[in-house]
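Might you be able to check the backbone structure tokens below? Thank you kindly.
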Amino acid sequence: MNELHLHVDGSLRKSTLQEWCPDLHVHSFGFSRGMTLEDCLACFTTTVSAINSPDRMERAVRELCEDQKRCGVQNSELRFAPHIHGPHPEEMLDGAVRGLDNDANLVLCGLYGFDPKKIEELVELAKAEPRVVGIDVAGGPKKTDKWGMHHYVDAYQEANNNGIGTTIHVG
């Protein structure tokens, strides 16, 4: 079995989240049937803030790879948005790469509404790191967004020209 769409910050072990956020009631935290997109995205606010260093990113990725193996998944594409985890995106990417096992790779996410320069930065990071197999735009459009999908065409063309996979999942 292959897992082609797994968000690192949406797949933290409850025990790890409890360690990093001791005041959070992890047993009632998380995704549940019937949640709206906005409710689901709100959960990421907590998990993204918990993965706030390259060492934590490394651990989250390593544990996720271990959990995937335990579930019988042979190959995984793990995704995260390096620009929203605090330190420099390059440092977060380095942490994620250190946590990968031999059967997992990364997809770097930008968020819908991001400045196109941030999406272009993802392409540059992907070009420099062989374990990055794609870029993605994720999230939900908001009325206050200054930029939309049509602003990301140049970055996506650059990715395609360099053999970097592309995907979009918004709204």
